[in-house]
Design a protein that fits this description.
There is one protein chain. This protein has a domain of about 70 residues. It is about 15% helix and about 25% strand. It is built from 2 helices and 6 strands, in the order αβαβββββ. The longest helix has 8 residues.
Length: about 110
């Protein structure tokens, strides 16, 4: 889970890269955080397989992930969610409610 809606102070490169996330989920708003520098740091994180966002970020129009990873696209007022389900064996599934697509990430 990306810290503080994807704001700069809570997401320095040393922290994000040090955690080596395989998947990130950012609970941003269209204009609520989701800064360009944080999105760039996430994209460059070693081992990253997917970066999900709750909303397309107007604060970083050129750095948003592909639409398949965004629950609410630019101009949307639908209120879609990103759902994460975890299993005891370490496998987890991320579902984008807008697309209905789930991706499974094995331990």
């Amino acid at each position: 889970m990306v810290g503080y809606h994807g704001g700069d102070p809570a997401n320095p490169p040393a922290l994000i890269h040090g955690l080596r996330p395989r998947v990130t989920v950012m609970d941003n708003g269209v204009k609520k955080m989701g800064s360009a520098s944080v999105l760039q740091t996430i994209k460059s994180s070693p081992g990253l397989q997917a970066a999900y966002q709750l909303h397309w970020s107007a604060n970083a129009p050129n750095d948003n992930p592909a639409d398949e990873y965004i629950a609410n696209l630019q101009g949307s007022t639908d209120g879609n969610l990103i759902k994460v389900s975890a299993e005891k064996n370490g496998t987890f599934t991320v579902t984008n409610a807008r697309t209905g697509v789930s991706k499974v990430f094995k331990k």
